[in-house]
Amino acid sequence: MAAASHVHPTLTYVFPLLVDGFIALGIGALLVLHAGPLRARLYVASLVALATATSIWANVLHAIRLNQQARHIGLPLDDITVGAISAIAPLALSGAVHFYLLVQRQPTTRHNTADTEAATRHKPATVHEPGPAPADDAAAPTPLETSRDVPEPAQKQEAEVATPPKRKGRTSSATLEQAIEIGRTTQPGRDGHASRRRIEDAVRDKGFTINKDLAEKAKDIIQAELDEHAAAVR
After folding, report:
1. Is pLDDT larger for residue 106 or for residue 226?
2. Which long-range contacts (CB under 8 A, 24 or more apart) does 201-206 make?
3. How would residue 137 be classed by pLDDT, with cut points 50, 70 and 90?
4. Is 232 buried (19+), middle (13-18) or exposed (0-12) by CB count in 10 A?
5. Is the CB of residue 140 less than 8 Å from the CB of residue 70?
6. How far apart are CA 208 and CA 200, in angstroms?
7. How do residues 163-178 score in pLDDT, each as one tens digit?
8. Quick check: pTM over 0.85?
9. Helices (H) and strands (E) in the chain, counts
10. Is 173 helix (H, G, I), strand (E, B) or coil?
11. pLDDT confidence of residue 72
12. What pLDDT does residue 50 have?
């Protein structure tokens, strides 16, 4: 076909390599642009289809022309059969290149997934060291001291046990005992004094409602415990 198109005899062998090589590069570009803009993918796909059609057309025309000029000694084939058989080669080339590129991409995805699973599987667990044991059991700790010495997760667990389950619908109001119990788990405010606002926020976080008067009473009781504890330490 290249010789019939008056291509130089030394360059006629490059013509099929040029067409088939362009098909291979086009398929690779389609795989790279699988998530790219639609216009770019349509442009590359149209060029690949045009190059593939050119290769098939050239093979079919060449095979039919040779079939018409040849003397049939063995099995005679018509032009349609010869043309269909000659189209297998360019189609197989396009499919083989496509399969190769797909296989080349697959091991990378599996390797990354295996690394992620291995890192998750071998992730070291967090170890919590126990706190120091009390040196002397003679002096019994006050309720406030006991509440402050217990780790935060234990305080939350005790508060959840002391807190009744939430009712569906209307939110219940906290009692004075519940407000004091929850308020003991809060951090002191300025100068180490009990904070009414923090007590209110902690009670509301537990799902209860509380008014300022009840929160003020709970704050006074907790502040009295703090003062008593401070005097005992001195």
Report:
1. 226
2. 203/174, 203/178, 203/179, 206/159, 206/163, 206/174, 206/182
3. very low
4. exposed
5. no
6. 9
7. 555 545 567 888 888 8
8. no
9. 9, 0
10. strand
11. 65
12. 92
Q: What angle do CA 5, 51, 55 make, to 5 degrees?
A: 55
One DSSP character per residue, 80-122 reads HHHHHHHTHHHHHHHHHHHHHHHHHHHHHHHHHHHHHHHHHHT
Cα distance between residue 56 and residue 89, in whole Å:
8
Tens-digit pLDDT profile for residues 60-85: 888 888 888 877 677 778 888 888 88
- For residues 199 and 179, give the distance between their C-alpha atoms in angstroms, rounded to a whole number: 7
User: In this structure, what token pair is assigned to residue 164?
Assistant: 């009744």
Q: Confidence class of residue 229 from pLDDT cuts 50, 70 and 90? A: confident
Q: Tell me the three state secondary structure of residue 131.
A: coil
The amino acid sitting at 219 is K
Q: Contact 188/226 with Cβ under 8 angstroms?
A: yes
Structure tokens given for 232: 């005992």
- In terms of Cα–Cα distance, which of 35, 34, 30, 75 is closest to 51? 30
* Torsion sign over Cα 40, 41, 44, 47: negative
Terminal C-alpha separation, the chain: 108
DSSP 175-219: PHHHHHHHHTTSPP-GGG---HHHHHHHHHHTT-B--HHHHHHHH
Token digits of residue 130: 């126990």
